[in-house]
Amino acid sequence: MTGAGDLAPARLIVEAAELTRFTAASLRAAGASSADAAVTADVLVAADLAGVESHGVARLRRYVEGLKTGDINRDAVPEVVGDKGSVCVVDAHNGLGQPALCTAVDLAVGKAREYGTSAVMVRRSNHMGIAGWFAERAARAGMFAMVSTNAVPQVAPMGTSEPMFGTNPFCYAVPTAGGILCFDGATSVVSRGKLEQLDRTGKPMQTGWALGPDGRPSLDITGTVTGLINRKGHALLPLGGGEADHGGHKGSGLALFIELLCGPLAGARWSRHTYRGGEAGLGHFVFCLSLDALGDPGAIAAAAASLAREVQGAPGVDPQDPVRIPGERRHRFTRARLDHGIPVLESVLQDLNDLAELVGIGPVATVEHDLPAPQH
Amino acid sequence: MTGAGDLAPARLIVEAAELTRFTAASLRAAGASSADAAVTADVLVAADLAGVESHGVARLRRYVEGLKTGDINRDAVPEVVGDKGSVCVVDAHNGLGQPALCTAVDLAVGKAREYGTSAVMVRRSNHMGIAGWFAERAARAGMFAMVSTNAVPQVAPMGTSEPMFGTNPFCYAVPTAGGILCFDGATSVVSRGKLEQLDRTGKPMQTGWALGPDGRPSLDITGTVTGLINRKGHALLPLGGGEADHGGHKGSGLALFIELLCGPLAGARWSRHTYRGGEAGLGHFVFCLSLDALGDPGAIAAAAASLAREVQGAPGVDPQDPVRIPGERRHRFTRARLDHGIPVLESVLQDLNDLAELVGIGPVATVEHDLPAPQH
I need a labelling partner for A360 at 20 to 30 A (CA). Which of A97, A236, B295, B330 fits? Predict the structure, then answer.
């Protein structure tokens, strides 16, 4: 019943269908509609399936508590408040982020089928899980898609130690003849979730990842995680770090790209204005480009697969470790965990069962026997 | 007549109008049409104005020689070979990259005015200078724009030492109430042009920038520059470097984003297939999103300016060095150099005058007196 490695904390196995059922039931019990609960549970469990536990059911408490306190509007119905040609603006009315962004993706796909390209922006929204789930949804519909969101400020642009940007994922997906290729990564060097994960397994922090309240590199991993959560002056560094020599200005420019689109352009809050007065006010954006509008989508998907195969086939620096293309690891995890169940930390499981009691539903069912863990 | 710093090589001052006139005259004398020569000269000199000399007239020889040998088709007229809703595909017919991409930007702006969003892809093209020039052109027309290109492979994705991607710039521009904000940066940690510049001034190479033919970090700056030019097994590293710990997989995913769009999606060549058989076969892409389609463009531009001002106003790690927003340095350079002239390296000037002789035009006129240099 333990994971791999001496320091790995104990985990129990939960089947994907059970984790999804439980998550949806918790959200419904907290006041979400059945449809909203279903899509939100799908997105959260997709992260656990993909091995991105920081964005999975470990976050369910915040959703359930948000719905119960009213910080997240349980009665919200995403509303199209702007619709001009291939562009829509959606007001999420402070509801759950997942249903709002799912609405936006489906609108964007429809618009791109009609016009060739589209952009849909969401305002007054909340946390929406992993961007990749949404980009892959659009890619399955034949789109080259970009999806992103802003978030609570945790990332300091180069030159300051003040967090001004969310971890603002850069995310795209495209259908290829070899399957959907999807990249989804925070525009910080590391995400807070990654730090939490390393902290749990006793791994050290590295320079170039985060700054302390004194504006100097922080090497205290627990302190950094706590400081980020409590907004006590810690900051993650953008991709490229805090210095121009390794491209910190480029990571800053990338995080700003997403903050601009999701904040000012979406008519949403941005940066330090998010999460004020009981409302997150986050923004999301979706861009779609239909392969159909470009030419023969089969030929394009075949060419994209060729490029991906050539990258994978480049000689590895370590011959044991072939070059990876984006999403490979997540897809491998997902296949294994759909077959063998999802390992959930005992501490997370305890929290889920405490939540169950809070909202008056039964506990999560775990699998009795230990299943083979997927290889990292 | 010398620049700042002991190691800075000698430079002569040329007025921007004269450098543009000379560049256009050289291109015309090499066979380009007046219109193609004019836009190409504008884009090249814009790089020199902005302090991005690696993309400026120092590259003119390759253009002139390409036109003369026929490697670049002097008679090419960009042709719209696909036009479906908001999407166009342009065949550059192996002509100069600048006129082809300029055509694409103008098409994209027109389409986005009509539909709200647009994408225009260019295939069978050549080097096109700085992406920022094109993104700013679209932003001046009220667009949030992305522009990029692929290029000769010089960047090794994480996990291999084989160059698979061009330096593939990530570039966007947006109109704000405080002026156009434009980010334009290679998706490698450093560009080859930056290495050449450091090499000329005797500055050292850093680990995490490039690999040698043995797949290990290269610290030999001259050897790396030569190796990259001659394709002798050197490779630049993607933003984030060669290791996952600092996000090398993210930089790789970003470079792949551009290679996918400019190669397979544009119907152009990609990666190691570029520059084969006397034709570069490069691809470019333009995305436009009209602020008009999103709502009140004035309000959006004001919000974008607020975000930019807040970032600039964040307390600096070094109080003497305020936080910069993308494009600030380039705009400052451009203002100063429009007023006071462009310092051009003596070696570059000599090369320009050799070119002039080759194509039978007069030399570049330099300014007699040394003008104040802009502050870096």
Answer: A97
